[in-house]
Amino acid sequence: MSPTLDANTLNEPSVSYTEFLEKLNSDQVSYVEFLAPNGDAAYVTFKASEANMDVKPIRIGEGYPLEVRSILHLFEILMTYQ
Q: Which among 2, 17, 55, 80 could bridge 63 via Cys, Cβ 3.0 to 4.6 Å?
């Protein structure tokens, strides 16, 4: 199994990778930003809703893949949502 991020190591608010994928599949993701050099960190901005108008980016945390090949697979998934 590929290594994943442990949210306990973060010093900022985060959303789990599982929740991110669920919201991606239900068309609730507005934008994803991957930080250099290899996408080691990623921030998601969810679409605004009546329940949540605060659409600031939040770190994708618990379960986020740490290997480059897994991150590249995530890029492929996101490309299908364009």
A: 17
First-to-last alpha carbon distance for the chain, in angstroms, is 29
Q: What is the pTM of this model?
A: 0.83
CATH fit for domain 7-79, picks 1.10.3470, 3.90.1480, 3.60.110, 3.30.720: 3.30.720
26-37: pLDDT as tens digits: 999 999 998 877
